[in-house]
Amino acid sequence: MIVPVRSVRVLCALGALGVALTACGGPRASSRVVTATATEVAQRPVVASRPPTLAPGPAGLAPVFEHGPRNRGEKTVALTFNADMTEEQGARAAEGERFDNPRLIATLRRLEVPATVFMTGRWAEEYPIQARSIGRDPLFEVANHSYGHQAFSADCDGLPTLEAGRIAGDVERAYTAFREAGVADPMPYFRFPGGCYDRRALRALSSSGVTAVQWDVAGGDTAATDPAVVARHVLERVRPGSVVVLHCVRGAAPVTERAVRMIVPALRERGFRLVKVSELVGAAAATTS
Questions:
Q1: N or C: which end of the chain has fewer CB within 10 A?
Q2: pLDDT digits (tens, 9 = 90+) for 184-217
Q3: pLDDT at 133
Q4: CA angle (266, 248, 82) in 5-degree steps
Q5: How many CA atoms does the CB half-sphere of 235 hold within 13 Å?
């Protein structure tokens, strides 16, 4: 879930030194359940590449990226999806509550929409086949949304707060869950649960070698009941270089898939090219080098 950031916001895309970090994964380089088979994924060849990151911020703090360059002469936008699940929600999943949204992933594939999925480690453990399918499809990239969706700073919309000494371990625990699920090459990007962070969190995160990725357009899809409202919310706010945050959690964001079917053609009609977060981060890093 996302809430407004109540903490110090450090936009290092403008102040980065232009030196790309090399870490990937920490310090190391349904109604109709749709899960891609190995054959489906094999049809899209995987091309290995070195993910772009931003240089550390002031005092070595983890860099924070919010949107791409506005004046590149090209209208790009990244759709991102938070796949949230906490450690405590396993019992609810066992009782039938759905924290995945395979129909959404199928729609993104059908519309050929590149996207970045910010996944919690607990989500990957609950849905390992889907996590592996997403992570091995070159149309998508998987990034880190913590292990159990605990807040990295205090006063974050009621989320329990993770102690500073446990932050780096929590990030690595999520990457471990991705590897065990078979996710190929998770990205060195991290999104704070609830969107909340402060200098303490950035300092603790710095050892993980990741770029923190926020957003400049919140879709407002959590608990929404009208997909047209979500679509309008996005389309009224998107700008060149925007990062849009939506959710891949069917129970908490039930209309997201229908909203995406409205958002994508409207963006393309306006001349926007849909890209992954990594392309926007790379463009931001290039402007500061």
A1: C
A2: 899 999 999 999 999 999 999 999 999 999 999 9
A3: 98
A4: 95
A5: 19
* For residues 26-35, average pLDDT: 34
Q: 26: exposed, middle or buried (C-beta count within 10 Å: 0-12, 13-18, 19+)?
A: buried
SS3 of residue 236 by DSSP:
helix
Which amino acid is present at 194? G
Cα separation, 187 vs 211, in Å, equals 10
How distant, in Å, are the alpha carbons of 117, 205, 208, 251 from that of 247? 9, 23, 24, 10
pLDDT tens readout for residues 101-133: 999 999 999 999 999 999 999 999 999 999 999
What span, in angstroms and rounded, lies between the C-alpha atoms of 104 and 108?
Answer: 6
What angle, rounded to 10 degrees, do the helices at 227-237 and 256-269 form?
A: 40
Residue with tokens 């349904």: 30
pTM of this structure:
0.83
Which 3 state secondary structure label does DSSP give 269?
A: helix
Confirm if 256 and 248 have CB atoms less than 8 A apart.
yes
Residue 167 in contact with residue 152, Cβ under 8 Å?
yes
Q: Measure the CA–CA gap between 178 and 186, rounded to whole angstroms.
A: 7
